[in-house]
Amino acid sequence: MAMRTSLLGVLAFGFLCFICLPAEAALKKYQFDVKVSNVSRLCNAKQMVTVNGGFPGPTIYAREGDRVQINVTNYAQYNLSIHWHGLKQYRNGWADGPAYITQCPIQTGNSYVYDFNVTGQRGTLWWHAHILWLRATVYGAIVIMPQQGTPFPFPQPDREEVLVLGEWWNADVEQVEKQGNALGLPPNMSDAHTINGKPGPLFPCSEKHTFAMEVEKGKTYLLRIINAALNDELFFALANHTFTVVEIDAVYTKPFTTDSILIAPGQTTNVLVRANQLPGRYFMAARAFMDAPISVDNKTATAIFQYKGIPETVIPKLPTLPAQNDSDFALSYNSKLKSLNTPKYPANVPLNVDRHLLLTVGLGINPCPTCLNGTRLTASLNNISFIMPETALLQSHYFNIKGVYTPDFPDKPPTPFNFTGAPLTTNLRTNVGTRISKIAFNSTVEIVIQDTNLLSVESHPFHLHGYNFFVVGTGIGNFNPKKDPAKYNLNDPIERNTVGVPTGGWTAIRFRADNPGVWFFHCHLELHTGWGLKTAFLVENGPGLDHSILPPPKDLPSC
């Protein structure tokens, strides 16, 4: 079997770090050419949008404290923007990237420089297109090393590897999305999952499209795992080996061991794995998790963990992944995620809350005369299906452009009901609009995200731009404001930027609103985001220029 090993890439990275990561902060510059490339998978060749011709695109390497400038030149037929997922972009929403939220998209033939500082963050994050479904092919990793001389708070690995989990469609993804929208139905699901852009040998025509990493017995490896899939939460495991989870979403965790991990779209997980088994060839495998009556791509992507000196004729062994609907594993796994909470890496959880929000997740059916069944599927928060503006929200706020949005998003659902009771098939006063929530600078915020049984319960991974937050509580059923807060973990809750709300349950998060700007908050299932499951928070300026939004760059794209 022909396959690509990763040794040269790791050596190149080590050399890159040696020559370009001095003790003091450095300036890192990258050129991203967004262009259409010919790519073949699953016996199908197609043209698709890539960055620098790669699938996935290039990895951004930086060190905590560095300044990064990425010049994005758009040669593709689609206007687009790129989001640097998980970077906080303090006062600098202009570099955040979601189209029509913090910037207008980069038009075909134009360029835009994303210029930002990496402050107080280290670990694994990622970047992706943030318009339409272009992130199906336009994505890559971000690796932020600690400051020079600062070790990891866990055993130093001998080597590390980036593993980006994704999806593959044989058809043009943008056409798949357009067809679904025209019919008012969910678009066709993907034809395969991928690991570093490759589906693995369980798929046809895929022997040469299999990612492999060569390992040596007795050595320890850090795997930087990213879920870049559009719509699927994924289990991931390595046959005959265990993982030690040490970081999620670029935040160190209390280490724990597990045979498998669960990772939602938008999330990252760093694990240590020791090559301590009988030398051989072992499959790493990724497969969807879905514990609701909803169809998903249930095919398994594989890559190979190959011990040095073992011939490629040896058939790899598959790991045992949890069952597709294993809710118990999902709940147990997420309950083990705890912040490190040491003097060097404290968990500064807000203990008192200034602003409480209860956001209900709803699916609905709206009239659509041109759609197949005369209806269209929609999604909402607090019964509001968000309409994307034609002028970027941050620009309209900064330049005081009227009529783009209204700052009246409700703090609670207008119609209380038994959220997770019997399935409801009717909308509850679902409205559409560009309604956002205004939050006072430096106030402490608690958001309870409540799943509902409007059409169906389902797990939803929510991402907040511009911030990390603490996951202080989660549960199944309806949130009880009188009883459930007493069970919160306010000591060492996990800190992250994307959190899964359990099927038929709720999740409570807290953060301090100390980053002024307009910050997107949305489900990271691209299907639901497109249906309207999103809003934004307008965090007001604080006192003085040091606590106010930075002036926009001169090359900011116009709509």
Automatic annotation (TrEMBL):
Domain Plastocyanin-like: 34-148, 161-309, 408-541
Signal peptide: 1-25
Chief localisation class: secreted
Keyword vocabulary terms for this entry: Apoplast, Copper, Glycoprotein, Lignin degradation, Metal-binding, Oxidoreductase, Repeat, Secreted, Signal
Enzyme class: oxidoreductase
Enzyme Commission identifier(s): 1.10.3.2
Cofactors, names only: Cu cation
SUPFAM superfamilies: Cupredoxins
Annotated localization: Secreted, Extracellular space, Apoplast
Cofactor: how bound: Binds 4 Cu cations per monomer.
Catalytic reactions on record: 4 hydroquinone + O2 = 4 benzosemiquinone + 2 H2O
Family in the record: Belongs to the multicopper oxidase family.
Free-text function comment from the UniProt entry: Lignin degradation and detoxification of lignin-derived products.
Protein name: Laccase
Annotated source species: Solanum tuberosum (Potato)
Origin organism lineage: Eukaryota, Viridiplantae, Streptophyta, Embryophyta, Tracheophyta
